[in-house]
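README: folding subset

This subset contains proteins for which both the sequence and a predicted structure token string are available. Records are stored as plain text. Below is the entry for dolichol kinase (523 residues), shown exactly as it appears on disk.
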Amino acid sequence: MLNKPVLAESLIVFVIVLFVHAAVWDRYSWCAVALAIQAFYVQFKWDRLLQLGGAVFQFRTGANSGLLPASMVIPLLGIVMKERCKSAGIVYFERFGIVVASTGMLVALFLSVIAVGVTKPVPTNTCILTGIAGSIIIYTMKHSLTVSEVIEVLEVLLIFVYLSMILLYLLPRCFTPGEALLVLGGVSFVLNQLIKRSLNVIEGRGDPIDFFLLVAVVGVVLLGLFFTVLFIFMDSGTWISSMFFHMMTAVLGLGVVMPWLYRLIQRNPLFWLLQFLFQTQTRVYLLVYWTFLAASACGVVFYQNAKRSSESKKHQASTITRKYFHFIVVATYVPGLIYDRQLLYVAAVLCLVVFIFLEYIRYFRIKPFGQTLRHLLSLFLDERDSGPLILTHIYLLLGMSLPVWLFPRSCAPKGTLSGAGALVPYSGVLAVGIGDTVASVFGSTTGEIKWPGTKKTFEGTMTAIFAQIIAVALILIFDSSVNLNSSYAWILASVSLVSLLEAYTTQIDNLLLPLYLQIMFMA
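--- output ---
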């Protein structure tokens, strides 16, 4: 029997796909529609595999596979980026958007083929649909990509395959198949871009802050892989192991990451970073303000743990308590978006590195803080943290930061896009910081009418839409760079569709919703 919430989620994704391609219809639209149809069918095969325990790896429980919503994110991002850069006349990034779209389609198709291949008996209709979709995608790629671009797409696919085999084995129950597609697909693309730009550094293309992001992401991922393999053979909880962890982190950071970044930006990374952070008085004020908010967040953690009595060790923080952090990140990101987006870009990268490094310390029980972090963060776990890693706070940071990182600055005259595209950097703030928070708080406290098959309420969703519209009005008042050009109907439709997706999806909404809202705004 078909799952009604999954059907509703799929319908919302189909509507978003059609909305996007109604605005930017071209040859890649046929590929995206074909991919969406076959992903819809394959999604149910993945769900059946997960229910029967037939999947090769252990995926996160309590959620469907999420293959359809995840499969469409990277292709749609590439397509809308291509259109924006084409209209701006930036050929290099127009081609880059085509590569992103083609890579996303091929990686999603690969995941679908795996599900079909291990399903017994072999689903004939799904195989036919997958073959048709694959033929359309490959035919379009053949007539759209140059030889070097085809090689680049295949490189990303190869990296994705190896990363998937390694990380899904080492980190059971941390991802659904859809979340693995998004996270590992993104990391694979970043790694390939870093290798490509390192080999072609003499071309002088790229902003130092983009290189900083690439090196930081690849550096922390490689650091985690290194210690995960190392601690298979030794106990990570001893003082000797902990000292070795800190020493090797310093060696890898100073001996590999820093020289790599120096080669890309052609200057001392530490001096460049310090000069960048304290370049203007506005940046100093923002850094002081963000330090205060970070201290406030730590205060919330300590206060909630102090409230936890020894008799209630299984007590978990309430939904409203966890949403405190959403309010804090909104207060963090909005001033950065208004006054200095480049500083926010770099600060978000630094925060991501710190968050992942602290998670390594907690996961490996590195002394002296590993056990303390385990105790402090256990209070804020929810049903999505079923694996060995605690990822919800990292997903929150990613959801707020990805629209800032993925904003096509080179294709935006005067640093902003026209129409609804001017709200692209605010996608995380609107979808997660405001929409998801308001829906959760009002839905859990006043909601009575539940959406069919879910715990989410009609009142929560409607309040979230209303709150995001108010937030857009406030952005128009306080951010003079935003000019919507009468695209209010499109903004309302975008916010409404993404809020409905929040009500029905079982995937990590902190990661999925901002990306879909960004896609809609860029279209």
